[in-house]
TrEMBL record:
Name listed for the protein in its UniProt record: Peptidase A1 domain-containing protein
Sample GO molecular function, one term: aspartic-type endopeptidase activity
Low complexity bias (residue ranges): 496-512
Signal peptide interval: 1-21
Recorded superkingdom: Eukaryota
Species per Swiss-Prot/TrEMBL record: Saccharomyces mikatae IFO 1815
Keyword Glycoprotein (UniProt): yes
Coiled-coil residues: none
Family to which this protein belongs: Belongs to the peptidase A1 family.
Active site: D85, D322
Positions of the UniProt region annotated as Disordered: 496-523
GO cellular component, one term: fungal-type cell wall
Keywords: Aspartyl protease, Cleavage on pair of basic residues, Glycoprotein, Hydrolase, Protease, Signal, Zymogen
GO annotation, biological process: fungal-type cell wall organization; proteolysis
């Protein structure tokens, strides 16, 4: 079959249309490739995420998008396309010899994992039957890594066991090797090689180091938690950037490429003021889920020039900006209020609100983050069918997320050292670049008027139902290494400029550890690659080549 070469050709040609990676004056820029209607690009079968009927599932599959970067690993280099994820912290790539990918490489029909003996670095995989007719191309499509074919790879005897909220997982062993993105090369970079997974592709996590699997949130699984230099940290230690910060521009929905700037901002990519918010510790202890880059949402409104503006919620809640998920998850009462604002009717079969599609025209979902609003086109959150529209905002009790549907209309700067997030309305105008390096504070950013009015977890109350009051952070005993994150949210002065008055740093060790398995569970955000999507090669190639 010639399918593998054609798929590789499509990705290669798509990348040749953009600069693969460039660095100048202490910043690094990478194109972020936007994929749509391609195989394995949701974290799981969309029917499992949204639980819709078959017609709606097909529409959701076509609407699903994801953002990937091209990475080369090892000596000689092996290519993989990894999903860019602001909601996790580790880099994982699939082992070319993993039973899952080996099975997906042969034949059609069904393949069972029963006859494969897994290595001691992974938990035993349950007996399962997988349709390789649907999956036969996917591991090769996204790219795998063969440790035996790299002369510079070294295992460091630290195991990982990462399970996401949707049940998908990566299991295997950490190691180090040469990793390159564009013309940026990192020597002895730490990442995980997954030899037990049901995901067809890898992931590049760029969140806080405290979210790494080695910094296990379940102490019973890891008696010696530690952090290592993940990708953003490594860029600074290698002298590529001055501060561990990056700005994300996903671009308008129909665009093929977005961009990410490490160590800089591009003022041409946003309109209005860039406002800064403190990151939140959204959980009372580290035993729940990994720390993420949460901020406070103050209120939610639906804006329409014809029917008027409606404030649907004034409840504060913590929300995570997550490029690794295509959906959004909001508090139950907020999600229901949004649906009702369209005169929608809740469908138990679709598990969501349905309404007349005419309601979508010229309508925005606007969120107040503390004295400023970011608005997203409501059509980003809607699935259209022949008869009606369906609102794709999940009602949840915890783990609130704003994914790509919201982020396409926002320009977001993540400052991992000062533990702050700066946000502005994205601009899709074709303007000359105005790139400024982030050396201390984020250029052009000021503290939001509501910087100090943040959601705070109330011990003993479920997330999302606790008291809401002005920030008054307390330390959590037993987790001294995490105090720096908590401390940065304290309002120490009336300074209105962007950025914290002091930045914190947590030293990380990348030295080998004795074999230890860590388990981390993420409740927020779906992840990629567990879906037997219908796939048209012709439509896929035309997407990139026309």
């Amino acid at each position: 079959m010639q399918l593998f070469p054609l798929l590789s050709l499509a990705l290669s040609l798509a990348y040749s249309q953009a600069v693969l990676g460039s660095s100048s004056d202490s910043y690094v820029r990478f194109p972020v490739q936007k994929l749509a209607n391609v195989p394995g690009m949701g974290s799981q079968d969309v029917s499992n995420v949204f639980k819709r009927d078959d017609v709606l599932n097909s529409t959701l599959i076509n609407a699903v998008g994801m953002y990937v970067v091209k990475v080369e690993i090892g000596t000689p280099p092996q290519t993989a396309y990894l999903q860019l994820d602001t909601g996790s912290s580790d880099m994982y790539v699939n082992d070319a010899d993993s039973p899952y990918c080996v099975l997906m490489s042969y034949g059609s029909g069904y393949a069972s994992t029963d006859n494969y003996e897994l290595t001691a670095t992974a938990t035993e995989l349950p007996s399962s039957t997988i349709s390789s007719e649907s999956y036969s191309t996917l591991c090769a499509y996204w790219g795998t890594f063969s440790v035996g074919n790299s002369s510079t790879f070294k295992y460091n005897d630290t195991q990982f066991d990462e399970t996401y909220g949707d049940g998908t997982y990566y299991r295997g062993t950490y190691g180090t090797d040469v990793v390159s993105l564009g013309n940026i090369t990192l020597e002895s970079f730490s990442f995980g090689v997954a030899n037990n997974t049901e995901n067809q592709g890898g992931i590049l996590g760029i969140s806080l180091p405290a979210g790494e699997n080695t910094h296990s949130l379940g102490g019973a699984y890891n008696t010696t938690p530690f952090e290592y230099e993940n990708f953003p940290m490594a860029l600074k230690s290698h002298g590529k950037i001055e501060k561990i910060a990056y700005s994300l521009f996903l671009n308008e929905p129909k665009a093929h490429f977005g961009s990410i700037l490490f160590g800089a901002v591009d003022k041409s990519k946003y309109s209005g003021q860039l406002y800064t918010l403190p990151m939140l510790q959204a959980y009372d202890t580290l035993d729940s889920v990994s720390p993420g880059m949460f901020v406070t949402a103050q209120s939610v409104a639906v804006l329409n020039g014809d029917s008027g503006n409606k404030t649907v919620s004034k409840v504060r809640f913590p929300v995570l900006f997550d490029s690794g998920t295509t959906y959004s998850s909001l508090p139950t009462e907020v999600a229901h209020a949004i649906g009702k604002s369209f005169d929608g009717k809740y469908s138990s079969g679709d598990q969501g609100y349905t309404f007349d599609c005419s309601k979508v025209k010229d309508t925005l979902l606007s969120i107040d983050f503390g004295g400023f609003n970011i608005s997203a086109n409501i059509s980003n959150f809607v699935t259209r069918t022949k008869d009606h529209c369906l609102l794709n905002i999940e009602a949840a009790d915890s783990g609130f997320v704003l994914g790509d549907a919201f982020l396409v209309d926002a320009y977001v700067v993540f400052d991992l050292e000062s533990h702050e997030v700066s946000i502005a309305q994205a601009s899709f105008d074709d303007k000359k670049e105005e790139i400024e390096v982030i050396s201390d504070r984020v250029p052009g950013a000021i503290r939001a008027p509501g910087y100090s009015s943040t959601w705070v977890y109330t011990p003993g109350s479920p997330i999302g139902t606790g008291d809401f009051y002005n920030v008054s952070w307390t330390s959590y005993s037993g987790y001294s290494e995490y105090q720096s994150l908590v401390a940065t949210a304290v309002v120490s002065s009336s300074d209105s400029s962007g950025g914290s008055d002091s930045s914190s740093s947590s030293s990380s060790s990348s030295s080998s550890r004795s074999a230890e398995t860590t388990t981390e569970k993420h409740n927020a955000g779906d992840r990629l690659y567990q879906s037997s999507f219908p796939f048209s090669l012709a439509s896929f190639l035309s997407y990139f080549l026309l």
